[in-house]
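User: Assemble these into one structure.

Assistant: Restating your components, then the assembled model:
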Amino acid sequence: MENIPSEHIRHIHIVKIKDLTLKFPATDKEPEHIVLDKLTFGIRDGEIIGLIGNSGSGKSMTAYSIAGLLPGNAMITEGTIKYQGKDLLSMNPKDRRSMLGKDIGMIFQEPASALDPLMKVGKSLDEILLSHGIKDKAERYNRISDILKTVGFDQPEKTYERYPHQLSGGQRQRILIAGAVLLSPKLLICDEPTSSLDTVTTVAILDLLRKLCTDMKITILFISHDLSAVKNFCDRVIVMKNGKIVESDTTEDILMNPKNPYTAELLTNARLDPRTLDLTHAEYNPDEDPVLSCKDVSAAYTASLWGRWDENLVLSGVNMSVYPGEIKGLIGSSGCGKTTLVKTILGLMKSGGEISRPEGAIGAVFQDPVSCLNPAHSILWHLKEALRPMRRSMSKEDIMSAIDNAVDTVGLDRSYLSRRPDELSGGQRQRVAIAMCVITQPKLIIADEPFSSLDATSAAEILKLLAKINREKKVAILMITHNIHIVRAVCSTVAVMDAGKIEEDGITEAVLESPKSEAAIRLLDAEKRLHS
Amino acid sequence: MKNPSSKIFFIAGCILLGIVLLIFLISLFWTPYDPSATDPASKLMAPSAAHLFGTDNFGRDTLSRVMDASKYTVFISFAGVAIALALGLVTGIPAGYYGGWTDRGIMLLSNSIMCFPGILLALVAVAVAGPSMYNVVWALGLVFAPTFARVCRIGTMELKQRDYIIHARVMGIRSPRIMALHILPNLTGSLLPATVIGLANMTLFESGMSYLGLGVQPPDASFGKLLADAQSYMTRAPWLVIFPSLMLVIYILGLYFVSEGIRVRSGKGGN
Amino acid sequence: MGRKTGFIISKILELLATLLVVSLLTFVAFSVIPGDTAQVILGPDASQAQLDALRSELGLDKPLIVQYLNWIAGLFTFNLGKSAAFGVPVSDLIAERLPVTIGMSIIALIFVIAVSYPLSVLSARRPGKVLDQVFSVTGHILFAIPPFVLSLISIIAASALFSGFRAGQYFSPDENFPGFIGCLILPSFCIALPKIAMTFKYMRSSIIEQNASEYVKNAKGHGLTDMRILMKHVLPNSNVSAITVISIVLSDILAGSLIVEQVFNLPGMGRLLLSGIARRDFPLLSGMVFYIAFITVLLYFAADVLGSIADPRIRLK
């Protein structure tokens, strides 16, 4: 036993954490804060283990404790972390740092900014090998080419010469994964690696990680706030809350049969599932004149002073109609041009082609409830301001009754009128935004992902509210979303966008059940795997 | 970055600024001696109980002179910043809001003005119009306007991307109203520290100009002019240099500290 | 490729437009003001006939647009006519005074870079700790002292400390070069101190910002040492944004030297400018103002170009 070098001993648990307690000491502003409270668990060699919890649950701090990247003021007051039998907490910082990359790899949440913008990605990878003492230039180059191929770049010599800004989000995440597994570590810690990627890319990245797990025998610790996202990926799941483990089981058992109420809450709250809301499709008559019709619409961002119009078309040949009383869904992966189309329809961008808009104002509800209201003014001011363009013909009483009506419609209390936006919750702000639309009695409301930054409960209420307004006031709604279930529940028709074009447009059931275009198939397939 | 020292900066700045403003207020009603009264019997006297800050080569009381000078320094900095701020608002907000050729035109003019070193522009403007306190105010107001225009323009460009401004445009609110009522109130967060820094920089410039004899004209004197007068005697009567310098530095430092305090607090960047 | 040339062309057009506006501003400012170059040259006693004759000789009777074009032509051939007050060509006067101003600016810039860089790296290593606080507060205080006040104080201090020190000593660079450099060091240092504080403050926050960035976190996760991250990732990124600051610092130094020269009694551009103002010497003033602005425009342009070259996001857009 003594003669065997320690790295050759097989351990059932590659990492064993026992009674780990982590605190942030008190500052003038905050009292002492316990982040991890006697945490005990093990990571088995070769498994993919998910660590799930809301923000503040301590899941990221657990990962940083293992990696040795805790912020300067964090203090471990109790417990041990053993990596293949070695006590990590008693090692000196320099040795621990050199374990990173070699024994433990890490990837983080933000692929957009996680690469040095001034350095070619090949050079960035080269830096890793250099700092781990690999001097031979040809060897370094070969290893980088190999790993680039492994993570899915067919032409590694070209990728080597790229700068980060020339790559897409998914490609950057692949580079980061390449960097993390470059020295074949035994453990890979992934800190929400997919939360800023769209569904199609997420599925691809998860496939890659799974492949690395089997091919390179890498154990993966996968951190996420989204329980349903780990469904087809993790072998085992640990659910954390307030620095403690509330539940730990195989993924299947946790998803099918959560024993802890908190886990159940995480499952339902992670994503709005409108199937329980009992909503019906909006009715409309395609023989009526459409409230909105786009014919052959194109748009481009002009970058430079003499930037040519057709240089970077974001939209091209978009044809679409919205009929009175209809709710039309618009889906597509991120960067497909959905937001540009909204801006074009609202007349905020120069565009080619023909757009016929309804008379009067178009209502608009945007994604971000934080920036949808002006922080300098009260809610009452917002509603009055919304009426301003039509206010000439209105008496003071008319204005006040219109405001009262709008507030009642969206279900806000009158006492909110005197408040400022920063005193309201996200859901309440979205209600105010909707009230500002309703008050102008529009024929069309454009809702640009209004649910995506709300929690599931508020999102459900806003969805019900929009459906109610559609039904009662016969307002057509163009709803941009990435949640297929919402489309299925309320939209009568749906359009699929990809790369600036409408790829498919038709009755919701037809499109969702038997998509014809390749873009729609790809999108729906990824959705199904992640969220069905 | 959260910085607990921002509070300390703010308090220290207020104390320093308070000293100068208090002296400024007192000087409006009272000074120990008549600041321009000469006394041949007490030339170049070192600080004493009778003359706390000593006397100059005409026997004038330095404390009274310094108190009187605070009036001009404080007035010029505030008046100049008011002009610069007004000019910056009316050019910077439309430039950021409309973009395109409006923006290019305004920015070309403002960048061109910024290419003249500020002190040079102010010197020449005053030289051309004749040295007087009001010309200094106008010249410095013009020189500093592009700085404020930039702050307004960048702030407006950023706010323009916010949903509430986009929404206001969609609702059909007129542009002047959007700029005045939707954008302007939200610019105060970045304009406030810029204004305080502007006061400090304005004072730096004014003191330099007055030192060169192109600022406040005799018999009036700001801190810079006092220092210019003191230069010939500075090795024999260093108090003539030290006290005005001290007041000048306390004023500028106070302004810097205050701006640092509010800048960190409101979480805004800027220079 | 087309986009790249477009980028370069638009930058150059921007430069030309700025120069055009700068020259127009200068010319118009000196044309609308009361005062007449002929009057300055001939003195108050000159007769109307003498004045008219000199005016037509100087081209002052021509339409403004012609005068402007002549003036522009003069700027680029270094032929700005004679100074009204000194009676010698303006270009000669400027050339004579240039070494002092340029010398001071270079020495001051060396001070700024040599002092602010190491201090900001040191300070940003542990933000909020004692060393950092001391540096930051000192920086603020230095920033608040006008350079000419600093000069006055340093002269008082130097006279008190060194009996051999004499303010206002000057050696011509042709006769005694080491002496020339020697007499510029103290003034340069006085100009540099506030700018050291400014550059320090900027670099410090830039380094702290980079240290908190995602890619530094990522590099740590790959096992790179802190030193390697600093040298290979953090400093190069900070440098890109520091280019603009350095260009502003350099133009401030140039402007600052105009006043500080006066305190140390050095025969540089500042002295020339002041005597020009005192004698209302418009040919001299307009030429000096334009040339100083011209240098600044080129400086900012160079910073812009350097910044675009250093940043692949702009270079390869």
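The longest helix of chain C spans residues 226-264.
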